[in-house]
Amino acid sequence: MRVMVADDAALFREGLARVLADAGFDVVAKVGDAHALLERVRAEPPDVAVVDIRMPPTHTTEGLDAARTLHATHPGVGVLVLSAHVEAHYALQLIESGARGAGYLLKERVADVAELGDAVRRVAAGGLVLDPSVVARLVGRRRTRSPLDDLTDREREVLTLMAEGRSNQAICQRLFLSPKTVEAHVRGVFGKLGLHQGADDNRRVLAVLTHLRH
C-alpha cells in the first residue's frame, strides 16, 4: 500500500515514515508542507496521505484544508490527519466533509504501530476513523438531558466504538461478544437515539456523530 507523509517537523516526519515502512507500507513521498503534498499527489496519487493538521505557512489548518482538497480532486485517496491535541470540531469537519476514506488521530497514536496501521488500512478501504479521545469527549459532554442517559453501559461501549468507525466484527473482537449480541446492542443504540441504521459503516458513523455533536 502506497502512503505519503506530510509534516513540517523533520524528525517526526522521518520517524513516522520509518514506523509506516516497518509496518509494511510503501512510503513513496515525505514532504514538509501541504502545497508539496498536493503537488506529489497530483503527479502520483497514493492510497493514503498521512497529514499533520498544522503546517506552513500559518500553522493553523493547512492539513485539514489539504484533506478537503484531496477529497474533491482525488476521492480515491484516503486522508489520515494527525493532530497534537484533541480538537473535536476539526475532527468532525474532516469526517463530515468527506464521507469516505477520512480519519483523525492524535499524534500520540503513532507510538502504537498496530493502531496506526489499522487506521491507515481502514482509511485506504474508504472507512472513517476517529480518535478515541475525540469520541470520549463527545460522549462525555455534559448536557441537561440526553438520550445517551438511557443507554446501558454496554450500549455506551458499543456506541463509542461505532463512533470511532469500528465495524460490527471489530466491535465483537474488542468486546468479546457474539455477532448477534453486537447487532442487538447496535439496534438498541439506534432505537434509543432515534437514528436510522445506515446501509454501511460510514453512514452509521456519520449518523452517530451528527447526534453526538448536538
TrEMBL record:
Domain of life of the organism encoding this protein? Bacteria
Q: Which residues form the HTH luxR-type domain?
A: 144-214
Segments forming domain Response regulatory: 2-122
Task: Keyword check for DNA-binding, yes or no.
Answer: yes
| Record-linked InterPro entries | CheY-like_superfamily, NreC/VraR/RcsB-like_REC, Sig_transdc_resp-reg_C-effctor, Sig_transdc_resp-reg_receiver, Tscrpt_reg_LuxR_C, WalR-like
Which positions does the record annotate as the modified residue 4-aspartylphosphate?
Answer: 52
Q: Which UniProt keywords apply?
A: DNA-binding, Phosphoprotein, Transcription, Transcription regulation
One Pfam family linked to the record? GerE
Manganese as a keyword of this entry, yes or no, is no
Would you tell me the protein name for this molecule?
Response regulator transcription factor
Q: What is the lineage of its organism?
A: Bacteria, Bacillati, Actinomycetota, Actinomycetes, Pseudonocardiales
